[in-house]
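Exercise 7. Predict the joint structure of the components listed below.
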Amino acid sequence: GENVEQHPSTLSVQEGDSAVIKCTYSDSASNYFPWYKQELGKRPQLIIDIRSNVGEKKDQRIAVTLNKTAKHFSLHITETQPEDSAVYFCAARSPGNQFYFGTGTSLTVIP
Amino acid sequence: GAVVSQHPSWVICKSGTSVKIECRSLDFQATTMFWYRQFPKQSLMLMATSNEGSKATYEQGVEKDKFLINHASLTLSTLTVTSAHPEDSSFYICSANYPGTLVEQYFGPGTRLTVT
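Solution:
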């Protein structure tokens, strides 16, 4: 099956700085890559996604890039705010529509 | 957006008993649902793919006889943890694929299972 790795596991940034989280995947047939934000005890919330036919996507302060050749994708959060503090997960969708998650990044934005 | 519910939201059971968790798609029909387990401070681990009208597909290492999945209708999948043990205590989350060209995944709110 698909194997998704995510780095770093923890990340602390000063408010206003940028945060970058990186993921790699193993199955070249995976075709959809969402990013989720999860607060303690709650369901994951989709924050941005990218499909395999696109290299970059941006939504206000959040952007995602995808390098299909290298099989890695990254989440970029600019002008971070304290409310951005949470655990972030990347995921890759296999051709069978199963979603495989990265190990998660605990982001702390220091006011 | 689409809504997926889970019931119960939390449950405490004694070791050796069985617990059933329901996952419902409230405003759409889902031919496929997924079950995940999440231990504290860890990632979501895909347990199985639940297919309406057929047997579930389990991920490697997941005991199909312990985690029984039934997808009897297009809006309901159930996960039964049989003969639960303390190590089964976890956060169980289901998700459903929204049909159509934009295949998005919607998560249920999760069920916190504690086995004493």
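Discussion. Chain A touches chain B at residues 1, 32, 34, 41-44, 46, 89, 93, 96-104, 106 (CB under 8 Å).
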